[in-house]
Fold these 4 entries.
Entry 1:
Amino acid sequence: MLVLSESNSIVKNFIGELRDVEIQKDTMRFRKNLERIGEIFAYEISKTMTFSNQKITTVLGEKNTQVLTDFPIIATVLRAAMPLHVGLLNFFDKSDSAFVGAYRGVHDKSEHFNIEMDYISSPDLTGKTLIICDPMLATGKSLEKAYHGLLRFGIPAKTHIVSVIASDRGARFVKARMPECKLWIGDVDDELNEKSYIVPGLGDAGDLAFGVKI
């Protein structure tokens, strides 16, 4: 697991603005910060990927360089992850995409809930590098369901999971239940409240990016 906030970088500014209740009132800035963090994750993940030699011809000569061999498939857990997805695509600009509609069902009186999944589409994942992005990793249940739903489209060679803010419990759940996946996190919070929301977290990322749902 790699946590970006464990070392000082500009990403701390972006995460701080995502959390700030005053800055959150600017929905365009909220989306832009998610997008910028997605770009930073893409840059960091690219360091782990395979590159091949290529000769480039310029107007003045030739240069031997290395380029990314295979672009990953980027899967988004709708709807909150869409700006994060855009940031990853800005850097992995030749990537195909997958989309998963996974969300919390109705909470019962004891605040228990099931994860509902009513939509999924993906290209063939066989032997590919897969990146699954979801800005908030609370319990880990929706990510687990999304991941296993995607496996019906083929078994990836490598899977990376990207979340901006995770709970310690959610991160431990993913590492235990999906040890084959590499976890990339912006920042980790210690608590989940009685409704399984991350504390202090930032609130509902989907609502902050796109408006309150009914």
Entry 2:
Amino acid sequence: MTFTDFCGRGGKRAAGIYLLLWAVSTGYLAVKGADWVFPIISLILFGIILSAVGWWLTRRSDAPAVAVSGPGRQTIWFIAYIALYAFLLAGYGLGAVKQAVADGPAQEWAVLAYKLLIHVLMPAGLIAWLGGSLSDSFDLGLRRRGVVVALFLFCGLMFLLIALVSPSLALLATAGVTGASILPWALASWLWMSAEAGLCEEYLFRAGLQSRLTAWLQSPLAGILISCTLFGLVHWPGLYLRGGPGTDGWSTDPVQVAAFTIATLSPFGILFGTLWVRTRSLLLIVLIHGAVDALPHASEMIAIFR
């Protein structure tokens, strides 16, 4: 895929609109006295540098596009489902599951099962009902050139980055886990978060929504930028309606919450969206996503399962 093919019809226009929206959102955070530095780091690191590295590593993968019949119709249905998901299924539905099952391992398994239902099983059912290809959306893509190298490089990089910039290791030490004893818990947390966060979010937003936007707009770049913007905004109901003080990104100002989701969260989607377009390997983006969340979740996993 050449860069011209990647941009497709309207890709450069979509990039201009996205950068303007991101800049306005970041500026709004600055005016409100919120953190505006991390959004810049997020865009430069994930949206530009790591996306470029991923592009180069997978330059020979030759991944076929996802086959989508009637892409406009499928996209509209998917956006409608995501709206239902954001305001009802991911909020009140998940809350109901947590209330129905007592705290502990049983609740964690119940939450995982419910998340897989609303992020994977129901969207897959929607794709099948609309006449889409499930084999395309669940493609592992491990035999394509550059996928295995990208998998090891990005997963290792995410573990290293999170270990350096987050308090994850300190929290593990507080839980009495240090040295070599960190490894089994980190691996267990990686597998868990690859399912709970990686598979759930990447299937819904990359294999599902982005693939349909790309086919409809005839532009992989536009598909990435629109889907990553919606990925950020989907967090708005949870932060504004159900969040509170102490929750990262929460505010009494609904516009500030929306600005946070766009400026801070959407750049992550650019990296995963680029890797999906280049490789169409669901396993690749699921495991990299899981690696981002593995160490931060490990101490919580110890407290629940040990």
Entry 3:
Amino acid sequence: MDYIWAAVTEVFSPVPLFMNFLGVLIGMVIGALPGLGSVVAVSICLPFTFGMAPLQAMALLLGVYCGSTCGGSIAAVLINTPGTPQSACTALDGYPLAKQGKGGIAIGWVVAASIFGGIFSCLVLVLAAPSVASFALRFGPLETFGLILMGFTCISSVSGKNLLKGLASSMIGLLLACVGASPFTGDMRFTFGLFALHSGMDVVPVIVGVFALSEIIDRAERMLHEAPIEVIRSNIVKMPRLREWKGRVGGLIKSSIIGTFIGILPGTGSTTAAFISYSEARRTSPRREAFGTGEPDSIISAEAANNAVTGGALVPSLALGIPGDPVTAIMLATFVLHGITPGVRLMQDNPTIVYGIFIALIVANLLMWPACAVTTRLFHYLLKLPEPLLMGIVAVLCVLGSYGTRGNINDVTVTVCVGIAAYLLRRGGFPMPPALIAFVLGPQFEMSINQMALYRGDQSWFSYIMSSPIALCLFGVTTLLLFLPHLQRRRQKERREESEEEKRAEEKGKRG
């Protein structure tokens, strides 16, 4: 108890508290700039932590981590340009809701779901870090394969009315994920002799091209043939009222659980969590028919999941010294720079630091509300610019963001080419979410398949699969998710037929 009180006292002292809020604000602003994101934001702030005390440094970086994860959704809602890859799902319904004149309400849903998901994962981090981290280590290639396969089932639910075009779009995403050197054999695939493609395609340039650049091209074409479109502006954050949460709390909790669990698995990340959570909400939400038109359930699912990853990713990082995602890898480097050894003895050797991290992460999530209000107001003034000038600025930020992720000029070429291709596909009626889902999950899917071939050894595939209860459960859930829509449609058809028969019987009775 003494360690907890000491951590509370230190976190709520002026300097760490200011660093926490400053980190959230910086993360919000950088996250809202298209193409940058959490890794870039934390990397920018890392050099400034060298002269700080360890807990001050962690308060700053944790604030940046939480703020950048949520900040990317501001641009996604207001200009349909995801500031970070994990906010791509938010744009699917956040932007349509903002187009209805409810930009402040859309951002309110974003902030509320983000705060809940982040605090939920913090509680899991505090209560179950050692035991949950050890369970995550039981996930080998077969279990990871089962989890990703379950994620692929969402392609059918995000393909709209044309499943064939959705599958074709997902195949394009898988092909893009295969560009570059094979992770196992080193063979070059789909490079067409271009050295620039040897390292593959990074997720940030592809997402920026698919969402941001294709939207800019589409708007530019509409500006030539239509009257200028009023840019969505909002300078306030309207938090949802309690009665508006009726029927949504279950989805909020489920999305938070998905995000926390995926965050605990090393190397997955918030983008995967957001897509899997969104697809699950698209499949099970009682308002799933309204998805794509500004439905808050969609925003809640994506935001609660991608922010829950922040706490979940710290579980293996603090308990085992295994980074849950690239951002926590940078934070582990911060530990080492300040003379702290992460791993199984971190709790015993530095309990005040560990409890301080727990508390600072909770405070950072609570500070997202005022920080988002400030960032949204800044965007309000920015969006007063004429639309052509604004789209030009967004295009420049897209290019800078694509280049700044890896410092590779070839990523700019990828963004431009993918943006033009996405625009043409959109004109042809091909949905873009299946392509992004396949592109994000493709590399991990391929890696798990290759690792399974090595791990099974002399076992048959049947005995290898039957040896993992976790994988069997995941395969069972996947099968259920594939057949459940067909069963639901069949049941609805039977109910319609029964109601029609009842109507006919009533009409015959009246005539008789």
Entry 4:
Amino acid sequence: MDLSDFIFRHAGFTPDKPALRFEGGTLTYAALAARIDAAARALKSELRVGRGDRVAVLAANHPDYLVLLYACARLGAMLVPLNWRLAVPEQLFTLTDASVGALLVEKDFGSVIAPLAEALPQTRVVGLDFAPAGGWSFEELLASRCGESRNPRIDLSAPLLVVYTSGTTGRPKGAVLRQEALFWNGVMSQHMHGLTANDHVLTVLPLFHVGGLNIQTTPALHHGATVTLHPRFAPETTLAAIACDRPTLAVLVPATMQAMITHPAWNSTDLSSLRALTTGSTIVPQNLIDAFEQR
């Protein structure tokens, strides 16, 4: 068993249920499972990704971010999420330090490609939303898939994520999380949030942080719930999504909470669908807690 089996089981029991909603589109559990399978086949057959290999992603939040996570789980590979807020030299350090063999990058962050080719010429580059010079687009890569979508002897003990620290006291360090860490995180999230398949999670925090990726997003998918994903946080789109999409759970940090309560639409937005809001990452000022409790 690997972590992707949760998605495939939901695809078998509730194939038409929305798994991911993104920019007006919906990916059902059946469609998500099929895309994970295709991505795993393509990574294995075309990019020769094997157990223990590192695959980096440099992109804003997108459904394919999660597709890559579960495709790596099937192969026993490790996903290395890159912080798109960093400067190119900082991103190159992470790519080099992690010995990344493949990078999937969004066009907006394509400035890393040329220096990467010089620093790590063996690293293969795939464009998530474009075809880089001499490389694949992700859709072209998926279309070329063949063979098996699994590597042998992969289970929850296999490493899955290499998440880099902030590096505030030195060079960033890659923290390795095994698949079972995400599994048990999902179990704890179920208890903490009362999470069930009936929930609808709104994710606006970046997936390159474990807060955005693992506090509610992956647990929701493991339990068969629905996730609405925003590329980036903005107070107006977050408030509009709460009013229109009616999520039941969300994760915010104090900075995003402050941006929301000072937005002109704060007092008029219907927040009644939210049964819980998770926050943290730093001290949460009492005035922010009070503002949300009053609403």
